Amino acid sequence: MKHVFLLILLCHVSSAGKIVKHSLKFIFTASSGVPDFPEFVAAGVVDDILSGYCDSNKKIVEPKQDWVNRLFEDDPQHFELYTTECSEKPLFFKARINNLKQRFNQSGGVHVLQRMSGCEWDDETGEVNGFNKYGYDGEDFISFDLKTLTWINLKPQAVTTKLRWDTDKARIKYNENYLTEIFPEWLKKYVAYGNSSLQRKDLPSVSLLQKTPSSPVSCHATGFYPDSALMFWRKDGEQLHKDVDHGEILPNHDGSFQMSVDLNLSSVTPEDWRRYDCVFQLSGVKNDIVTKLDKAEIRTNWGKTGN
C-alpha cells in the first residue's frame, strides 16, 4: 500500500500455463500529506493492463488502450458512468480518509486509503469470483465476503465499520449485485473489445550480457508480452538451479516486459560452455527461444567478447 502509486501504474502479475482467467480491477486511492500528487486517483485494470485512469486534479476519464476508446464511442453511456464516478468519488474518499485519520488518532503525515474491487472470470469453466476490499496505510482494513454477505474486519479499528455496514442491507445488495452480475458482464464486454491486444503474443529479443570477464553472464529478454513467461539456464538439456539468479519480470515503457536470469560461470571451464544454453518460454507459444552460451555472442561494456 505504501507503494500504491507504483501499483496503479505497473499493476501486473505473473502466471503460468494457458491464460483462461480474466480479471477486472478498479483501484481507488485517496491520500493526504503527499506533495505534488492528486488526493484521489482511480485506475481501471483489465487482465492486469491499465485500461483507464482519472484523478482529482484533471477530473477527466483517460482511456489508456485503443479498445477503450472504441468502447466509449460505441457505448456513450458507459463513458458517462465513468465520468460521473470520476467526479463524485474524490469527495467520498476524502471524507472516508478523514474519518479514518480521526479513528486512528492521526493528524499530519502521509496516509493512504485504497479500495480494490472487481472480479475474476474463468472463460473455460464460467466461474466468477468477485472481491471488494479496503486497505489503509499499508495494511488490510476490511473486505466483503460474498459467501456470507457480510464484511470482515481485518483490523480492530474496522469493527465499527463492519457493524455499521453489516446492518446496511442496501449496501450489501449493491455489492452483491456489482460483484456477481455487473462487473462480470463488464469484464466479458471488455475482453471482447480488447481481445486482439489482451490476447496478443509478442516474442522478445534475447541477448547475453556480461559486465566484466569475471561477472555472471546474464540472459536478458526484452519486448515480450504478456508477462506470463519463464526463463532459465540449462546444462546438457537439464534446468539448472545452482549458481543461477532469477530477476523479476519488469515492465517496459511501451507496455511490453523484460526479464533476466544470471549464470555464475566461475566454476565452469571454457570447454564446458557449449553444454549450456538459456531458454525463454512464453505462455501460449509452442516454440521456445533457445540461446547457446557462446563467448562470441556475449555483449559487454566494450562490445562482443569475441572481437
Automatic annotation (TrEMBL):
GO CC terms, sorted: external side of plasma membrane; extracellular space
Record's keyword annotation contains Glycoprotein: yes
Classification via PROSITE patterns: IG_LIKE
Domain Ig-like stretches: 204-278
GO BP term, example: immune response
Keywords, comma-separated and alphabetical: Glycoprotein, Signal
Residue ranges that the Swiss-Prot or TrEMBL entry lists as coiled coil: none
Domain of life the protein comes from: Eukaryota
Position of the signal peptide: 1-16
SUPFAM superfamilies the record matches: Immunoglobulin, MHC antigen-recognition domain
Similarity comment: Belongs to the MHC class I family.
Identification of the protein by name: MHC class I antigen
Organism: Dicentrarchus labrax (European seabass)
